[in-house]
Pyridoxal 5'-phosphate synthase subunit PdxT (Clostridium manihotivorum), 193 residues
Amino acid sequence: MRIGVLALQGGVAEHINHLIKLNCEAVEVRKKEELEGLNGIILPGGESTTIGKLLRKTGIFDILRNKILEGLPVWGTCAGMILLAKDIENDNVKHLATMDITVRRNAYGSQIDSFLAEESIEAVANEKIPLVFIRAPFITSVDDKVEILAKIEEKVVAARQGNMLVTSFHPELTDNLEFHRYFIGICGKYAKL
């Protein structure tokens, strides 16, 4: 399995390390040519506005958006969730806008409001998973095509729509590999289509 991690800005190395632990070929994607031959791509946490600008500057934006719309599995963590959302509250800038969700940026406050939770997410694992939230967004509304995977205090923090997965939190910042394993499973299904 060959999975890319968008490496323009943000938490790249941690995702790469988790993928390697799960015997994937992990590719840092910095140029549009590096999108070829991938079974999936992870859009990491970081600063969504910066990543959005760099996607355009590098020429990756249109190619990546088209690949996602054509079925390339994509997982957006934190800033990656914002990049994939069709709507962002209090922001008229849209990025890839491929997933039928509305998100609220920095919904949990600033860096000092970061927190750790443990939740059971039935679709992903049988045991509780540690969830790390850092300046995290959450989903405020979903289309009926979107499957809600997890909520914290009634706020949607993980969802899936076909080939698109988003999490408010950072599984790559824990030792738990279940979310990466789950995404690899999505990639495997789409590779067979």
Q: What stands out?
A: The chain has one domain: 2-191. The mean pLDDT is 92.
